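dude i think i finally got it to work??
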Amino acid sequence: MIQYILIDLDGTITDSQEGIAKGIQYALKKMGINIEDLNSLRRHIGPPLRDSFMEYFDFDEEKLEEVVRCYREYYEEIGIFENEVYAGMKDLFEKLTSAGKKLIVATSKPELFAKRIMEHFDLAKYFTDICGSTMDGSREKKGDVIRYTLEKNHITQLDQVVMVGDRFYDITGAKENGLASVGVLYGFGDRKELEEAGAGQIAETVKDLEEILMNM
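look at this
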């Protein structure tokens, strides 16, 4: 029986595309790269920001730190709240907590930002902890965030834990730590991505997710 549910934030709890995409657009413009189509920046939602910038723009270490600084300049003041909770999410959390499940956020977003978002949307009250990455990049890969989450919360019975997320990073991070996983299709990933990563189950909607989690 699953007792602990680790849940990704961007693309799983909230639709954060607008704020993240505009922050990336702002940062890239500071670096002399103009991106008009915000939808083309969806691919950057999910992975650690440094990894994503390195993969697609091949910045050296100095430029990488500068572009991350510029992104945060926009995001922490404006982009963080260009964001909305997926419909049905609060109802899901109420049902899961009423059923005795312990909910914990596990996100590659900096923990400081994740806590602000969860408190802003009055969601923090459903969670026993909110765990994320560090600002300096020393803990940002999803596998590392999940490991930190388990250790911080003294969770050792891994067969009682499931990771929920919308990207393959969530699924592979769960596998690295010996956890079951559920992928969701209403976020920024797709079925092919989640299946290839090895998701144990896949939910198309928030209602599907509720049914899966209540029966695990």
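The beta strands are 4-7, 14-15, 84-85, 102-110, 127-133, 161-165, 180-184, 201-203.
im so relieved honestly
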